[in-house]
Amino acid sequence: IQNQENQKENLDQRFPGLFKKGRRKTVVRNLGKIIYYSKVKFKFQHCQEVNDCYLELFQSYLYFQSMGSSGVTYQGLLPLKELNVCEIENVKSTGLEDHAFRIAGPLPNPLIVFCPTESELKQWLYHLEKQIHLNGGSLGLPFLSQ
């Protein structure tokens, strides 16, 4: 029975879920309901290196985590109220498709997120804008319809 319970917990937790900032640790699953999640690619705006990344959108936070061969490469927990999100047009210089958006806010360097399809991009923009609005943040885009 305990093995089944562990399997259920593993299914409920899609990505490794412990956010560490200094000595403080936050169990990501305790942040509330997951609104949307997916695996995307990302890079910091002023860097060339593109990494696979897991994004999880909660009611008040956006959690990102990039895994490399040596474990977690980058991770961040961003309060939605402080984020500014906008779609990026024509990002062909990276060699990736041009389904991208930029996340700015309490980061030293904005994130560029690359979605595999336009549909995925629209889903992210819709859910992010909706949650930012619900958290009292300012909207950088007109409200997108699903």
Question: How does this structure look, described?
Answer:
There is one protein chain. By secondary structure, the protein is of the alpha+beta class. The chain has a single domain (about 30-135), classed as PH-domain like. The chain is about 20% helix and about 40% strand. The protein has 2 helices and 9 strands, in the order H-E-E-E-E-E-E-E-E-E-H. The chain has helices at about 1-10, 120-135, and strands spanning about 20, 25, 35-45, 50-60, 60-70, 70-80, 85-90, 100-105, 110-115. The strands form 2 sheets. Strands 6-5-4-3-9-8-7 form a 7-stranded antiparallel sheet, covered by helices on one side. It has a two-stranded antiparallel sheet with strand order 1-2. A hairpin with a 2-residue loop joins strand 4 (about 50-60) and strand 5 (about 60-70).
Major beta-sheet overview: 7 strands, antiparallel
- The end-to-end span amounts to 41 Å
Q: Give Rg in angstroms.
A: 16 Å
Quote the beta fraction.
35-45%
Helix content: 10-25%
Within CATH, the superfamily carries the name Pleckstrin-homology domain (PH domain)/Phosphotyrosine-binding domain (PTB)
> What value does the average pLDDT take?
77
* Assembly state: single chain
* Structural class by sheet pairing and helices: alpha+beta
- Name the helix and strand elements from N-terminus to C-terminus, one letter apiece: HEEEEEEEEEH
Kindly provide the name of the CATH class.
Answer: Mainly Beta
CATH topology: PH-domain like
Number of domains: 1
Low-confidence stretches: 1-16, 142-146
Q: Tell me, what's the shape? A: globular
CATH second-level architecture: Roll
Total strand count, please? 9
How many DSSP H or I helices?
2
Strand order of the largest sheet: 6-5-4-3-9-8-7
